[in-house]
Specification:
Strand content: 25-35%
CATH class of the largest domain: Alpha Beta
Number of domains: 2
Shape: elongated
Radius of gyration: 29 Å
CATH architecture of the largest domain: 3-Layer(aba) Sandwich
Helix content: 25-40%
Structural class: alpha+beta
Largest sheet: 4 strands, mixed
Length: 352
């Protein structure tokens, strides 16, 4: 019995899209190898020429001379990739090397056009099937930001620039860099990228809440320690190089990695009264020896639960250190993981 299959061909002229659907039954016939390549002759003696054909469950294209296509070919307005055996390729295909373009073909061989989601990431493909390579792109009146791999940025930072949960650049969420007197400070791209990597690793739902609540990050390298713990002689044992300004809704930090502890303190303050006033304090007091060994916290911080949570959240970003603590005190690591993961990034992408 012949199998019915459909291939959708998309062509573009100007801004108009023409969609042609070809529904066929698998063709009967035979292959012939010639000096120019393979040809296909139908059972009635005609040759396949200038056409798509479904043969044994695979799509093939034949040029006007009847030769089976291989490699990269443009059919209509779309670039297609054909395997060495002539069958139409599936999935991601790159027509490089160097400066080439990415395309995506579904299981029927159709090139993706416009928005396409793959493994949780969104991509934009132009009418000719090429994946967008621009870092910022206006699509149907809306501006979107994209990563170097072509996927759309969502609720994350590229350097100090923030992209919201709908993929829109949001300057109000950009990270500020200031001097101690509040004037703007120039920061190296390396510092910007390092800080962005730290923040983008924070749980997605908490990052979304941080922005939804109107908070922003402020990097002040000359700010020094905002809070210290000292011994009886006045020697500094531990420094918190971050602070939370509830009035201004600013998380300030003076060292690049201090943003980890600062964000942990923010999560703690917003984790709910039951967890903040009961469950975590009990676990922290019980496991303080193990916590101190893993984080370097001094005895004087034993009941400073926001500081403890911040220190734990800091090492939560380091799998080796975190797993070592988990082996000794799984109850406290479970508590942190539960709080960190209990907020999903509710919302939807408004793609048009």
């Amino acid at each position: 019995m012949k199998k019915k299959r459909t291939l959708i061909l998309i062509g573009a002229v100007g801004i108009l899209l023409a969609v042609q659907t070809i529904t066929s039954f698998a063709a009967d016939g035979k292959w012939t190898l010639t000096d120019a390549g393979y040809t296909f002759t139908y059972s009635d003696g005609r040759k396949a020429r200038g056409t798509w054909e479904d043969i044994d469950g695979e799509w093939y294209h034949f040029d006007r001379n009847g030769i089976m296509e291989t490699g990269w070919k443009t059919v209509g307005n779309i670039r297609y990739h054909f395997n060495q055996d002539g069958s139409l390729s599936e999935g991601w295909q790159y027509d490089g090397p160097g400066g080439g373009n990415w395309y995506y073909y579904d299981s029927a061989g159709n090139a993706k056009i416009q928005w396409f989601q793959d493994k949780g990431n969104w991509y934009w493909f132009d009418s000719d099937g090429k994946m967008n390579k621009e870092a910022v792109r206006t699509i149907k009146g809306k501006t979107y930001a994209f990563r170097p791999d072509g996927s759309m940025r969502v609720n994350e930072y590229a350097g100090f620039s923030y992209t919201d949960y709908d993929g829109q650049p949001d300057p109000a969420g950009d990270i500020l860099a200031v001097n101690a007197d509040g004037t703007a400070k120039t920061v190296s791209e390396a510092e910007k990228n390092e800080i962005a990597v730290y923040i983008n690793a924070f749980p997605d739902g908490w990052r979304k809440k941080f922005r939804d609540d109107g908070w922003r990050f402020v990097y002040c390298p000359s700010g020094g320690a905002y809070r210290t713990f000292k011994d009886k002689r006045g020697n500094v044992l531990y420094s918190c190089n971050y602070s939370l300004d509830e009035e201004k809704k600013e998380l300030r930090f003076s060292k690049t990695d201090a943003v980890k502890g600062g964000f942990g303190a923010y999560v703690y303050e917003n984790s709910g009264d039951e967890m903040k006033k009961d469950q975590f304090p009990k676990a922290a007091r019980y496991r303080f020896a193990e916590i101190a060994q893993a984080t370097g916290l001094p005895e004087g911080a034993k009941r400073e639960y926001d500081v403890i949570f911040g220190a734990l959240f800091h090492i939560y970003q380091d799998p080796d250190v975190w797993n070592a603590l988990k082996a000794k005190a799984s109850d406290i690591t479970w508590t942190i993981e539960r709080i960190a993961d209990n907020r999903s990034a509710d919302g939807r992408l408004d793609l048009e």
